[in-house]
Amino acid sequence: MSEASDVETLQELPLRTGGLMRRLRLIVIIVSAALFAVAIAAWGRSHELGEVIGREGRDEQGKVTCIDGLFSGGGQLAVGRLQVQHPHRNGGANPLNPATQWFEKPVARTVWCWRRDFIPYPFLSDTAHGWLTRLGFGRRGLRAGSITRHAFTGLGVPYWLVALATGLAPALLLGQSLVRAIRRAERARLGQCLHCGYDLRGSGARCPECGHELPSARPRM
Ligand SMILES: [Zn+2]
Q1: pTM of the full structure
Q2: pLDDT average, residue stretch 70-90
Q3: For residue 199, how far is its CA from the centre of ligand 1 (angstroms)?
Q4: Do the domain assignments include residue 72?
Q5: CA distances for 7 relative to 3, 14, 17, angstroms
Q6: How far is it, in rounded angstroms, from Cα 79 to Cα 217?
Q7: In this structure, is residue 9 part of a structural domain?
Q8: Ligand 1 mean position, distance from CA 198 (Å)
Q9: Residue 141: which domain range?
Q10: What is d(CA 131, CA 112) in angstroms, rounded to the nearest whole number?
């Protein structure tokens, strides 16, 4: 059984890499399935409250001037910036941003923040193509307040795409595993090699076609 010939060593190699691939598949399935569960939970939550986690810029009075981070709201996940904009110069306290033509307070310091007090709408609700916007994608957004307004820039993707991307890999891999299990069961029933499908009736302890060791040494009919 354990003759240390070169041929046998070579024949065992595919089985070992097969084991490694199975472990990798399992890791991919578990990680993707966990991300999928998080995506589904965040998707549902995004319809109840709008939130952002990231770095908050504050002026010298401690008021929020901008937030860079991850935004979630209205079925959309977005990475980008919220900029608080003012309609007036306010005696020079609010300098003009020539790029936006709005008055924006300078940042004095930044702190980490997790704000959950936004209306649950998509933060980025405008793309160059209307159909992309309708699907839930976005590059820009505006939310008007009583005096100031919030301008959003970045990239927003719909949660259905996040769920699809994280759910597809585990679904495909589990489907593939199921197909393989059915095929192995069918081969075992027909007395074929589980590895390559070669007819093993009358064969010894190894498949003469691929060298795969038979799971049991019982004679097959
Ligand atoms: Zn075989």
Answers
A1: 0.73
A2: 95
A3: 8
A4: yes
A5: 10, 12, 17
A6: 59
A7: no
A8: 5
A9: 47-161
A10: 35
